[in-house]
Amino acid sequence: MEGGNSPNLQLQQLPLATAAVSVQPHTDSFSYKENLIGALLAIFGHLVISIALNLQKYSHIRLAGSKDPRAYFKTKTWWCGLFLLVLGELGVFASYAFAPLSLIVPLSAVSVIASAIIGIIFIKEKWKPKDFLRRYVLSFVGCGLAIVGTYLLITFGPNSHEKMTGENITRHLVSWPFLLYMLVEIILFCLLLYFYKEKNANYIVVILLLVALLGSMTVVTVKAVAGMIVVSIQGNLQLDYPIFYIMLVCMIATAIFQATFLAQASQLYDSSQIASIGYILSTTMAITAGATFYLDFTGEDILHICMFALGCLIAFLGVFLITRNRKKTVPFEPYISMDAMPGMQNMHDKGIAVQPDLKASFSYGALENNDSMPEIYTPATLPIVQEQHGSKGISAPPYRVLEHSKKE
Protein backbone atom coordinates (compact mmCIF):
# COMPACT_ATOMS: atom_id res chain seq x y z
CA MET A 1 0.00 0.00 0.00
CA GLU A 2 2.72 2.41 0.93
CA GLY A 3 4.73 1.56 -2.16
CA GLY A 4 1.75 1.97 -4.38
CA ASN A 5 0.75 5.27 -2.89
CA SER A 6 4.20 6.82 -2.98
CA PRO A 7 4.28 7.36 -6.77
CA ASN A 8 0.90 9.07 -6.59
CA LEU A 9 2.12 11.28 -3.82
CA GLN A 10 5.19 12.17 -5.81
CA LEU A 11 3.09 12.92 -8.88
CA GLN A 12 0.81 15.12 -6.84
CA GLN A 13 3.69 17.05 -5.28
CA LEU A 14 5.52 17.74 -8.52
CA PRO A 15 3.02 20.30 -9.91
CA LEU A 16 3.00 22.14 -6.59
CA ALA A 17 6.78 22.37 -6.56
CA THR A 18 6.80 23.50 -10.18
CA ALA A 19 4.23 26.16 -9.45
CA ALA A 20 6.21 27.37 -6.46
CA VAL A 21 9.35 27.67 -8.57
CA SER A 22 7.59 29.49 -11.38
CA VAL A 23 6.33 32.24 -9.10
CA GLN A 24 9.81 33.51 -8.18
CA PRO A 25 11.00 34.38 -11.72
CA HIS A 26 7.73 36.17 -12.34
CA THR A 27 8.21 38.23 -9.19
CA ASP A 28 11.82 39.04 -10.13
CA SER A 29 10.86 40.12 -13.64
CA PHE A 30 8.08 42.25 -12.26
CA SER A 31 10.40 43.92 -9.74
CA TYR A 32 12.99 44.61 -12.44
CA LYS A 33 10.18 46.10 -14.51
CA GLU A 34 9.33 48.40 -11.60
CA ASN A 35 13.00 49.36 -11.35
CA LEU A 36 13.03 50.25 -15.03
CA ILE A 37 9.83 52.30 -14.74
CA GLY A 38 11.17 54.22 -11.74
CA ALA A 39 14.55 54.83 -13.39
CA LEU A 40 12.94 56.08 -16.62
CA LEU A 41 10.64 58.39 -14.66
CA ALA A 42 13.60 59.78 -12.71
CA ILE A 43 15.70 60.30 -15.86
CA PHE A 44 12.77 61.95 -17.63
CA GLY A 45 12.07 64.17 -14.65
CA HIS A 46 15.66 65.37 -14.22
CA LEU A 47 16.02 65.95 -17.96
CA VAL A 48 12.85 68.05 -18.07
CA ILE A 49 13.95 69.99 -14.98
CA SER A 50 17.26 70.88 -16.66
CA ILE A 51 15.46 72.10 -19.78
CA ALA A 52 13.04 74.12 -17.65
CA LEU A 53 15.79 75.82 -15.63
CA ASN A 54 17.72 76.72 -18.78
CA LEU A 55 14.58 78.15 -20.37
CA GLN A 56 14.03 80.35 -17.35
CA LYS A 57 17.71 81.30 -17.36
CA TYR A 58 17.41 82.26 -21.04
CA SER A 59 14.38 84.41 -20.23
CA HIS A 60 16.25 86.21 -17.45
CA ILE A 61 19.27 86.80 -19.69
CA ARG A 62 17.16 88.37 -22.43
CA LEU A 63 15.48 90.74 -19.95
CA ALA A 64 18.61 91.59 -17.99
CA GLY A 65 18.53 95.26 -18.99
CA SER A 66 14.82 95.79 -18.46
CA LYS A 67 13.68 98.41 -15.98
CA ASP A 68 10.82 96.21 -14.82
CA PRO A 69 12.27 93.62 -12.41
CA ARG A 70 9.33 91.29 -13.08
CA ALA A 71 9.22 91.56 -16.84
CA TYR A 72 9.93 87.84 -17.23
CA PHE A 73 6.44 87.13 -15.88
CA LYS A 74 5.08 88.44 -19.17
CA THR A 75 7.13 86.10 -21.36
CA LYS A 76 5.95 82.74 -22.65
CA THR A 77 9.44 81.29 -22.29
CA TRP A 78 9.47 81.72 -18.51
CA TRP A 79 5.98 80.24 -18.07
CA CYS A 80 6.89 77.33 -20.33
CA GLY A 81 9.93 76.73 -18.13
CA LEU A 82 7.74 76.82 -15.02
CA PHE A 83 5.33 74.27 -16.51
CA LEU A 84 8.19 71.95 -17.45
CA LEU A 85 9.68 72.38 -13.99
CA VAL A 86 6.48 71.24 -12.32
CA LEU A 87 6.19 68.34 -14.78
CA GLY A 88 9.75 67.23 -14.07
CA GLU A 89 9.27 67.40 -10.30
CA LEU A 90 6.14 65.27 -10.61
CA GLY A 91 8.08 62.71 -12.63
CA VAL A 92 10.84 62.50 -10.02
CA PHE A 93 8.24 62.32 -7.24
CA ALA A 94 6.44 59.44 -8.95
CA SER A 95 9.69 57.54 -9.54
CA TYR A 96 10.17 57.03 -5.79
CA ALA A 97 6.96 54.97 -5.67
CA PHE A 98 8.30 52.35 -8.12
CA ALA A 99 12.04 51.91 -7.60
CA PRO A 100 14.15 51.68 -4.44
CA LEU A 101 15.39 54.89 -2.88
CA SER A 102 19.06 53.99 -3.34
CA LEU A 103 18.50 53.68 -7.10
CA ILE A 104 16.56 56.90 -7.69
CA VAL A 105 18.74 59.35 -5.75
CA PRO A 106 22.02 58.92 -7.73
CA LEU A 107 20.14 59.48 -11.00
CA SER A 108 20.12 63.21 -10.29
CA ALA A 109 23.44 63.20 -12.17
CA VAL A 110 21.29 63.29 -15.31
CA SER A 111 20.36 66.86 -14.43
CA VAL A 112 24.03 67.90 -14.27
CA ILE A 113 24.78 66.18 -17.59
CA ALA A 114 21.83 67.81 -19.35
CA SER A 115 22.63 71.25 -17.94
CA ALA A 116 26.22 71.02 -19.17
CA ILE A 117 25.20 70.01 -22.71
CA ILE A 118 22.36 72.54 -22.94
CA GLY A 119 24.61 75.29 -21.61
CA ILE A 120 27.14 74.68 -24.38
CA ILE A 121 24.73 74.16 -27.28
CA PHE A 122 21.60 76.22 -26.68
CA ILE A 123 22.71 79.00 -24.37
CA LYS A 124 25.68 79.51 -26.74
CA GLU A 125 28.34 80.28 -24.17
CA LYS A 126 31.18 82.11 -25.84
CA TRP A 127 34.47 80.31 -26.20
CA LYS A 128 37.55 80.64 -28.37
CA PRO A 129 38.77 77.73 -30.48
CA LYS A 130 42.12 77.66 -28.69
CA ASP A 131 40.37 77.42 -25.32
CA PHE A 132 38.04 74.60 -26.37
CA LEU A 133 40.36 71.76 -25.35
CA ARG A 134 41.23 73.44 -22.09
CA ARG A 135 37.66 74.22 -21.08
CA TYR A 136 35.40 71.53 -22.52
CA VAL A 137 37.28 68.27 -22.96
CA LEU A 138 37.12 67.45 -19.26
CA SER A 139 33.44 68.35 -19.28
CA PHE A 140 32.71 65.87 -22.07
CA VAL A 141 34.81 63.23 -20.32
CA GLY A 142 32.77 63.92 -17.18
CA CYS A 143 29.54 63.49 -19.14
CA GLY A 144 30.77 60.14 -20.46
CA LEU A 145 31.75 58.95 -16.98
CA ALA A 146 28.43 60.08 -15.54
CA ILE A 147 26.54 58.18 -18.26
CA VAL A 148 28.59 55.03 -17.56
CA GLY A 149 27.94 55.42 -13.84
CA THR A 150 24.22 55.88 -14.46
CA TYR A 151 24.15 52.68 -16.54
CA LEU A 152 25.86 50.74 -13.76
CA LEU A 153 23.45 52.17 -11.21
CA ILE A 154 20.42 51.04 -13.18
CA THR A 155 21.89 47.63 -14.01
CA PHE A 156 23.15 46.71 -10.55
CA GLY A 157 20.76 48.75 -8.44
CA PRO A 158 18.96 47.18 -5.47
CA ASN A 159 15.93 45.09 -6.33
CA SER A 160 14.01 45.26 -3.06
CA HIS A 161 10.34 46.13 -3.41
CA GLU A 162 7.81 46.51 -0.65
CA LYS A 163 4.28 47.81 -0.58
CA MET A 164 4.27 51.26 0.98
CA THR A 165 1.43 50.57 3.39
CA GLY A 166 0.92 52.30 6.70
CA GLU A 167 1.83 49.17 8.66
CA ASN A 168 5.11 48.64 6.81
CA ILE A 169 6.21 52.26 7.13
CA THR A 170 5.36 52.30 10.85
CA ARG A 171 7.29 49.08 11.36
CA HIS A 172 10.36 50.56 9.63
CA LEU A 173 10.02 53.80 11.57
CA VAL A 174 10.34 52.11 14.97
CA SER A 175 13.03 49.60 13.96
CA TRP A 176 16.24 49.80 15.98
CA PRO A 177 18.62 50.34 12.97
CA PHE A 178 16.69 53.41 11.87
CA LEU A 179 16.34 54.74 15.43
CA LEU A 180 20.11 54.39 15.89
CA TYR A 181 20.68 56.10 12.54
CA MET A 182 18.36 58.94 13.52
CA LEU A 183 20.16 59.41 16.83
CA VAL A 184 23.54 59.69 15.11
CA GLU A 185 22.13 62.03 12.48
CA ILE A 186 20.49 64.34 15.04
CA ILE A 187 23.70 64.57 17.07
CA LEU A 188 25.76 65.30 13.94
CA PHE A 189 23.23 67.86 12.72
CA CYS A 190 23.21 69.71 16.06
CA LEU A 191 27.02 69.81 16.16
CA LEU A 192 27.26 71.15 12.62
CA LEU A 193 24.54 73.71 13.29
CA TYR A 194 26.37 74.88 16.44
CA PHE A 195 29.64 75.39 14.61
CA TYR A 196 27.86 77.07 11.70
CA LYS A 197 25.81 79.52 13.76
CA GLU A 198 27.92 80.12 16.86
CA LYS A 199 31.47 79.63 15.61
CA ASN A 200 30.85 81.13 12.14
CA ALA A 201 32.17 78.00 10.42
CA ASN A 202 30.91 79.02 6.98
CA TYR A 203 32.72 76.22 5.17
CA ILE A 204 31.04 74.74 2.13
CA VAL A 205 31.35 71.21 3.52
CA VAL A 206 29.60 72.21 6.75
CA ILE A 207 26.67 73.87 4.98
CA LEU A 208 26.24 71.11 2.42
CA LEU A 209 26.44 68.45 5.12
CA LEU A 210 23.50 70.17 6.80
CA VAL A 211 21.70 70.10 3.46
CA ALA A 212 22.57 66.42 2.95
CA LEU A 213 21.33 65.40 6.40
CA LEU A 214 18.04 67.17 5.81
CA GLY A 215 17.86 65.80 2.27
CA SER A 216 18.20 62.21 3.49
CA MET A 217 15.07 62.65 5.58
CA THR A 218 13.35 64.41 2.69
CA VAL A 219 13.82 61.50 0.27
CA VAL A 220 12.77 58.96 2.93
CA THR A 221 9.50 60.81 3.49
CA VAL A 222 9.01 61.43 -0.25
CA LYS A 223 9.19 57.70 -0.98
CA ALA A 224 6.72 56.98 1.83
CA VAL A 225 4.23 59.63 0.67
CA ALA A 226 4.53 58.73 -3.04
CA GLY A 227 4.28 55.00 -2.32
CA MET A 228 1.19 55.37 -0.14
CA ILE A 229 -0.49 57.52 -2.80
CA VAL A 230 0.21 54.91 -5.50
CA VAL A 231 -1.09 52.09 -3.26
CA SER A 232 -4.21 54.16 -2.59
CA ILE A 233 -4.74 54.67 -6.33
CA GLN A 234 -4.44 50.93 -6.86
CA GLY A 235 -7.42 50.37 -4.54
CA ASN A 236 -5.93 49.91 -1.06
CA LEU A 237 -6.61 53.24 0.66
CA GLN A 238 -3.71 54.41 2.82
CA LEU A 239 -4.58 58.08 3.30
CA ASP A 240 -6.48 57.39 6.52
CA TYR A 241 -3.29 56.34 8.35
CA PRO A 242 -1.76 59.05 10.61
CA ILE A 243 1.72 58.06 9.45
CA PHE A 244 0.91 59.44 5.98
CA TYR A 245 0.35 62.96 7.34
CA ILE A 246 3.36 62.71 9.65
CA MET A 247 5.53 61.87 6.66
CA LEU A 248 3.93 64.64 4.61
CA VAL A 249 4.65 67.29 7.26
CA CYS A 250 8.25 66.05 7.68
CA MET A 251 8.72 66.13 3.90
CA ILE A 252 7.59 69.75 3.62
CA ALA A 253 9.54 70.93 6.68
CA THR A 254 12.83 69.30 5.71
CA ALA A 255 12.50 70.54 2.13
CA ILE A 256 12.00 74.14 3.32
CA PHE A 257 15.01 74.08 5.67
CA GLN A 258 17.07 72.37 3.00
CA ALA A 259 16.26 75.17 0.53
CA THR A 260 17.20 77.75 3.19
CA PHE A 261 20.67 76.31 3.71
CA LEU A 262 21.15 75.98 -0.05
CA ALA A 263 20.29 79.66 -0.50
CA GLN A 264 22.88 80.59 2.14
CA ALA A 265 25.48 78.41 0.44
CA SER A 266 24.77 80.02 -2.94
CA GLN A 267 25.54 83.45 -1.45
CA LEU A 268 28.96 82.34 -0.23
CA TYR A 269 30.22 79.90 -2.86
CA ASP A 270 30.16 79.24 -6.58
CA SER A 271 27.29 77.21 -7.99
CA SER A 272 29.65 74.67 -9.59
CA GLN A 273 31.17 73.81 -6.21
CA ILE A 274 27.71 73.50 -4.68
CA ALA A 275 26.57 71.22 -7.51
CA SER A 276 29.49 68.79 -7.29
CA ILE A 277 30.02 68.63 -3.51
CA GLY A 278 26.30 68.75 -2.82
CA TYR A 279 25.61 65.88 -5.20
CA ILE A 280 28.27 63.67 -3.61
CA LEU A 281 27.24 64.36 -0.01
CA SER A 282 23.49 64.25 -0.62
CA THR A 283 23.68 61.02 -2.61
CA THR A 284 25.84 59.32 0.01
CA MET A 285 23.56 60.31 2.89
CA ALA A 286 20.40 59.40 0.96
CA ILE A 287 21.71 55.94 0.05
CA THR A 288 22.66 55.37 3.69
CA ALA A 289 19.18 56.43 4.82
CA GLY A 290 17.51 54.21 2.24
CA ALA A 291 19.61 51.21 3.21
CA THR A 292 18.76 51.80 6.89
CA PHE A 293 15.06 52.65 6.65
CA TYR A 294 13.84 50.63 3.67
CA LEU A 295 16.55 47.92 3.83
CA ASP A 296 17.30 48.38 0.13
CA PHE A 297 20.33 46.06 0.00
CA THR A 298 18.84 43.19 1.98
CA GLY A 299 19.33 39.94 0.04
CA GLU A 300 21.70 41.50 -2.53
CA ASP A 301 24.91 39.63 -3.30
CA ILE A 302 28.37 41.15 -2.92
CA LEU A 303 28.89 41.52 -6.68
CA HIS A 304 25.79 43.68 -7.16
CA ILE A 305 26.66 45.84 -4.15
CA CYS A 306 30.25 46.36 -5.35
CA MET A 307 29.16 47.20 -8.91
CA PHE A 308 26.54 49.60 -7.56
CA ALA A 309 29.21 51.31 -5.41
CA LEU A 310 31.49 51.47 -8.47
CA GLY A 311 28.69 53.11 -10.46
CA CYS A 312 28.26 55.71 -7.71
CA LEU A 313 31.99 56.49 -7.66
CA ILE A 314 32.11 56.85 -11.46
CA ALA A 315 29.07 59.13 -11.39
CA PHE A 316 30.68 61.20 -8.62
CA LEU A 317 33.85 61.60 -10.68
CA GLY A 318 31.83 62.52 -13.76
CA VAL A 319 29.87 65.23 -11.97
CA PHE A 320 33.08 66.60 -10.46
CA LEU A 321 34.72 66.86 -13.88
CA ILE A 322 31.64 68.48 -15.40
CA THR A 323 31.56 71.23 -12.80
CA ARG A 324 35.35 71.53 -12.48
CA ASN A 325 35.93 73.66 -15.56
CA ARG A 326 32.71 75.64 -15.46
CA LYS A 327 33.40 79.31 -15.93
CA LYS A 328 32.99 81.23 -12.71
CA THR A 329 31.07 84.48 -12.89
CA VAL A 330 32.83 87.31 -11.09
CA PRO A 331 30.35 90.02 -10.11
CA PHE A 332 31.34 93.64 -10.65
CA GLU A 333 31.90 95.51 -7.39
CA PRO A 334 32.27 99.31 -7.69
CA TYR A 335 33.59 99.51 -4.14
CA ILE A 336 36.21 97.89 -1.98
CA SER A 337 35.05 94.55 -0.61
CA MET A 338 35.07 94.77 3.16
CA ASP A 339 35.14 90.97 3.34
CA ALA A 340 38.77 91.08 2.29
CA MET A 341 39.74 93.58 5.03
CA PRO A 342 40.95 91.99 8.29
CA GLY A 343 39.00 92.90 11.40
CA MET A 344 35.93 94.11 9.50
CA GLN A 345 32.46 92.64 9.93
CA ASN A 346 31.66 90.02 7.32
CA MET A 347 28.55 90.81 5.31
CA HIS A 348 27.27 87.26 5.82
CA ASP A 349 27.73 87.13 9.59
CA LYS A 350 24.27 88.39 10.41
CA GLY A 351 22.77 88.60 6.97
CA ILE A 352 23.16 92.42 6.89
CA ALA A 353 25.21 94.10 4.20
CA VAL A 354 27.82 96.49 5.55
CA GLN A 355 28.53 98.13 2.22
CA PRO A 356 27.10 101.58 1.52
CA ASP A 357 24.23 101.99 -0.87
CA LEU A 358 25.24 102.31 -4.50
CA LYS A 359 24.26 105.75 -5.81
CA ALA A 360 24.62 107.41 -9.17
CA SER A 361 28.38 107.51 -9.04
CA PHE A 362 30.84 104.68 -8.57
CA SER A 363 32.46 106.34 -5.53
CA TYR A 364 31.43 106.98 -2.01
CA GLY A 365 32.58 108.82 1.09
CA ALA A 366 35.10 111.55 0.43
CA LEU A 367 35.22 110.64 -3.27
CA GLU A 368 31.49 110.90 -3.84
CA ASN A 369 30.44 113.11 -6.70
CA ASN A 370 28.02 115.77 -5.46
CA ASP A 371 27.77 117.80 -8.65
CA SER A 372 24.18 116.78 -9.26
CA MET A 373 23.08 117.14 -5.65
CA PRO A 374 20.70 119.93 -4.71
CA GLU A 375 22.02 123.07 -3.18
CA ILE A 376 20.65 122.17 0.22
CA TYR A 377 23.04 119.23 0.39
CA THR A 378 26.13 121.15 -0.68
CA PRO A 379 28.73 121.81 2.03
CA ALA A 380 28.26 125.09 3.87
CA THR A 381 30.97 127.74 3.47
CA LEU A 382 32.21 129.78 6.38
CA PRO A 383 32.08 133.56 6.03
CA ILE A 384 35.38 135.42 5.98
CA VAL A 385 35.33 138.38 8.27
CA GLN A 386 38.09 140.93 8.37
CA GLU A 387 39.32 141.85 11.82
CA GLN A 388 38.73 145.44 12.74
CA HIS A 389 41.58 146.75 14.89
CA GLY A 390 40.85 149.18 17.67
CA SER A 391 37.16 148.47 17.96
CA LYS A 392 35.89 147.70 21.41
CA GLY A 393 32.70 146.12 22.57
CA ILE A 394 32.40 144.00 19.45
CA SER A 395 32.85 140.27 19.90
CA ALA A 396 35.36 138.71 17.62
CA PRO A 397 34.03 136.18 15.12
CA PRO A 398 35.24 132.63 15.48
CA TYR A 399 37.12 132.78 12.21
CA ARG A 400 39.17 135.82 11.22
CA VAL A 401 41.49 136.67 8.43
CA LEU A 402 44.23 139.12 9.35
CA GLU A 403 45.29 141.43 6.57
CA HIS A 404 48.85 142.63 6.88
CA SER A 405 50.23 145.52 4.99
CA LYS A 406 53.39 145.36 3.05
CA LYS A 407 55.15 147.31 5.76
CA GLU A 408 54.39 144.64 8.29
TrEMBL record:
Keywords: Membrane, Transmembrane, Transmembrane helix. One of its GO terms (cellular component) is membrane. It holds the Pfam family Mg_trans_NIPA. It is a multi-pass membrane protein. InterPro entries: Mg_trans_NIPA. It is found in: Membrane. The chain crosses the membrane at residues 36-56, 77-98, 104-123, 135-154, 174-196, 203-231, 243-262, 274-295, 301-322. One of its GO terms (molecular function) is magnesium ion transmembrane transporter activity. The keyword Transmembrane helix applies. The keyword Cell membrane does not apply. Its main location: membrane. Belongs to the NIPA family. This is NPAL3 protein.
